[in-house]
UniProtKB/TrEMBL annotation:
GO molecular function: lyase activity; metal ion binding
PANTHER family linked to this entry: 4-HYDROXY-4-METHYL-2-OXOGLUTARATE ALDOLASE 3-RELATED
Residues that bind Mg(2+): 119
Any single Pfam family the record assigns to this protein: RraA-like
Lineage, uppermost ranks: Bacteria, Pseudomonadati, Pseudomonadota, Betaproteobacteria, Burkholderiales
Name of the gene encoding the protein in the UniProt record: proA_9
Top-level taxon of origin: Bacteria
RNA-binding as UniProt keyword: no
UniProt protein name: Putative 4-hydroxy-4-methyl-2-oxoglutarate aldolase
InterPro entries: RraA/RraA-like, RraA/RraA-like_sf
Protein's organism: Achromobacter agilis
Keywords for the protein's UniProt record, in alphabetical order: Lyase, Magnesium, Metal-binding
Cofactor(s) this protein cannot do without: a divalent metal cation; Mg(2+)
Positions with a binding annotation for substrate: 96-99, 118
Length: 227
C-alpha cells in the first residue's frame, strides 16, 4: 500500500512554460495574478543576486527537523524547487551546504523555505539560490515524519505541488500550475507597457495621467477638482 504522506507523482508546469515565465520578474507575475501569490517578505534570498524559477516540490516538516527534506531530495526531478513549510521556525537550520550541493547535483534549481538555513557564506559562494525566513547555526534533527507532495503553507501562501515558483531580490511569487500559461500574455504585455512608460518619463513626460481620476474615486478630490 502506498504511503499516503508521500505523493511521488503529480503534474508539473511544462519546461517550455517555465523557460518563458522565468524571463519575467516575480513582481510582474504578481501584478497580473491579481497581486496574489507573493510570499511574506520575511522569506528572502540569502543574497540579493539570487534568482530561481521552477516547479514546486512541496515538503512539510516539523520545526527543526529535516528528515523529510532528505526524502524529498531523493524524489525530486530536475527543474524542481524545494518549497518547504518549516512552520516559520528559526531556532535551528533545516539545510546547509551539504544538502545544497546535493540539490544542485540532482538538478534541483533552488530552495524556498519558511525556516532557517545555515552555511550562508558557502551557499552564496556556490551561487545556489536559497530563499529562507532567516539563518541559524544550529543543526536540525532527523527524526520526525512529515509530508511530501501535498499542499503546504509557506509565507502565507498555499503552494501546491507542481505550481510555478519564481524568486529574485524582491522575494518569491507562486502561481498555480493551471494558471501560469494563461497569465503569460498579460505579463509580457505589462513588460512592454512599463518599458514604454519609463521611456516616456525619461523623455520628460512625468505626469501620472490616471492620478486625478483615482483621487476623485477615493473621495480625496471633488468632481471637477484637480491637483
Amino acid at each position: 500500500m502506498a504511503n499516503q504522506d508521500i505523493i511521488k507523482d503529480f503534474p508539473r508546469v511544462s519546461a517550455d512554460i517555465v523557460r518563458r515565465a522565468a524571463e519575467l520578474q516575480p513582481a510582474i507575475l504578481a501584478d497580473v495574478a491579481g497581486r496574489r501569490g507573493a510570499l511574506n517578505g520575511r522569506i528572502r534570498p540569502l543574497h540579493p543576486g539570487m534568482k530561481v524559477a521552477g516547479t514546486a516540490l512541496t515538503v512539510e516538516v516539523r520545526p527543526g527537523d529535516n528528515l523529510m527534506i532528505h526524502a524529498a531530495i531523493s524524489l525530486a526531478k530536475p527543474g524542481d524547487v524545494l518549497v518547504i513549510d518549516g512552520k516559520g521556525d528559526l531556532s535551528s537550520a533545516l539545510m546547509g551546504t551539504i544538502m545544497m550541493n546535493a540539490c544542485r547535483k540532482l538538478g534541483i534549481v533552488g530552495v524556498v523555505m519558511d525556516g532557517a538555513a545555515r552555511d550562508t557564506v558557502e551557499i552564496i559562494e556556490m551561487d545556489y539560490p536559497v530563499f529562507a525566513a532567516g539563518t541559524n547555526p544550529n543543526g536540525p534533527t532527523k527524526n520526525v515524519p512529515g509530508r511530501i507532495g501535498h499542499p503546504v503553507s509557506v509565507g502565507g501562501v498555499t503552494v501546491h505541488p507542481g505550481d510555478f515558483v519564481i524568486g529574485d531580490a524582491d522575494g518569491v511569487v507562486v502561481v498555480e500550475r493551471e494558471k501560469i500559461e494563461g497569465l503569460l500574455p498579460a505579463a509580457e504585455k505589462k513588460v512592454r507597457d512599463e518599458a514604454a512608460r519609463i521611456a516616456a518619463i525619461q523623455a520628460g513626460d512625468t505626469e501620472a495621467k490616471w492620478l486625478n481620476a483615482a483621487l476623485r474615486a477615493a473621495g480625496v478630490l471633488k468632481e471637477g477638482e484637480t491637483l
